[in-house]
Fold:
Amino acid sequence: MTHETIIARRRGDELVFLCTRCGHIHRHGVGNGHRASHCPKDRGGEYFLQEDVDAVYGELTDDELHPAHEILHSARRGIHSVAEYLGDAGFLEDAGKLSVLVDVLAVYVDYSADKTCRLEELAGVVLQEDVAQ
Structure:
């Protein structure tokens, strides 16, 4: 039986990858070979894990960019829906905070053409706001 080949990056003593089946990050021990997925049961199964020996830490390949965009888009859409629901239910302050979060995600957490994510910059902004309060 042939299983899908998943390319993973080495992080210390683990192989790590963003799963296109469920959108979660999975971690397995080092070494190429067959693995049982960590996905929810309805998306599970097995795959062949292969280490990407040419991967550069801090960079995403074109194949990794697409699922990253999909996951971030889904997260923003879900948070936006909850904000609308809370607003309709009269929880305006909470709805406003979630709406701000959606805007922040749109600005700072976007894997752009240069394959960067501004999470460090976002963390700095959040820390500055916490200090100001």
User: Anything to note?
Assistant: DSSP finds three helices and five strands in the chain. The two ends are 59 Å apart (CA to CA). Residues 5-51 form one domain. The chain has a mean pLDDT of 75.
